[in-house]
Amino acid sequence: MLFRQLFDAESSTYTYLLADPATREAVLIDPVLEQVERDLRLLTELGLKLTVVMETHVHADHITSAGLLRARTGAQVMASPRGAPCVDRQLVHGDQVRVGGLELRVLETPGHTDDSLSFLCDGRLFTGDALLVRGTGRTDFQNGDSGQLYDSITRELFTLPDATELYPGHDYAGFTASSVGEEKRHNPRLAGKSREDFITFMNERRIPPPRKLDVAVPANRACGLDPEPLSPSSA
Amino acid sequence: MLFRQLFDAESSTYTYLLADPATREAVLIDPVLEQVERDLRLLTELGLKLTVVMETHVHADHITSAGLLRARTGAQVMASPRGAPCVDRQLVHGDQVRVGGLELRVLETPGHTDDSLSFLCDGRLFTGDALLVRGTGRTDFQNGDSGQLYDSITRELFTLPDATELYPGHDYAGFTASSVGEEKRHNPRLAGKSREDFITFMNERRIPPPRKLDVAVPANRACGLDPEPLSPSSA
Lengths: 235, 235
Known about the structure:
The structure is a homodimer of 235-residue chains.
Chain A: E1 2-8, E2 13-19, E3 25-29, H1 36-45, E4 49-54, H2 66-73, E5 76-79, E6 89-90, E7 96-99, E8 102-108, E9 117-121, E10 124-126, E11 131-132, E12 135-136, H3 146-156, E13 165-167, E14 178-179, H4 180-186, H5 195-204, H6 213-221, H7 227-230
Helix pairs in contact in A: 3-5
């Protein structure tokens, strides 16, 4: 598999490029609007054809480039039926997405948002904002639910093999990856913590809402193509 | 091999952790002072013993944590004889550094600075600031030399197999990695460019000196342990 992790420094968002080196078909997970030219150029340079864009959820902290990528490449956009209505294919638990010879398995991991998905491909797990390196997504907006997030992590993600490589949707401390076993042992919100502990911790956090919440959520429900958020003043 | 890429957002510096999963011995390449607690904690959590710290060169844009790491872990600090005099072992072209069962091969790749080294380990190439993703290090201070940098890249790095994974010392555009073949084909300063083209391009650039040049270079020549740069006001 051709694999590349990409970063948007402004929103600390990771985008992932996976491709089949034989067929040259590629998928982008969680691409960022401001990086669309970088990402299209990289696809061209690597001789790849973007066929699929997958969203882990409707993001509140950045705007997706999914709609623009679809317009420029013909790629199919995929996300949860609880997420953006603009997609070409709705993904539910257990679905398989084929990209050339690659198979991405869909795991529903709600709790950060009600539409949160994780994707598993060849020993690599893409967790969006459900599980971060030594952290988790927040649960205080977009139908977030701390108990549900705890269940998603402990009953879905933590039942995967310990060696599964974990690639988060964001990082703010300079980590690029982890593993399932590592987070089971060392994630301070989860290691040795009960469901109740987790809910209490999450509910007691007092953090300001994401700066882009009001702009990003409606824009992302339109796959980033809402004309308003695309203007320089609001993007 | 256990491998982890780490990022310091303030200086856009990548630090690399490589370890032998059998013996648990580990090496850090280009660790950053401000991240020393993160890195020590990660080593502890992963059950690793830091035995070696390698510097690609005397950095001008951040201060190394090599000296602190040596004091805290007993690790040996290694760099070029043209670099910091505080090291435990001086590395020259062709040297092999053993870390458990891992072997890191030393390549002298001067030009960004006169002490610049690259390290090769199991198909992964760590280039420091010699070769960056779609860029190169600058050559306008610390005995930098554009012609020498062109030679280092084209005669040393570009003679490695195309599939060699390339891990840079910095990135400012959200790239985490590339490959030798990719940079040969798509690095705008090098692909299809002569030595003369490269020298002309580098000499015509007008960019301000690194913000930390005056502080970082003397501090790094003392492995980051100079008391002055360690004070909060100047670090």
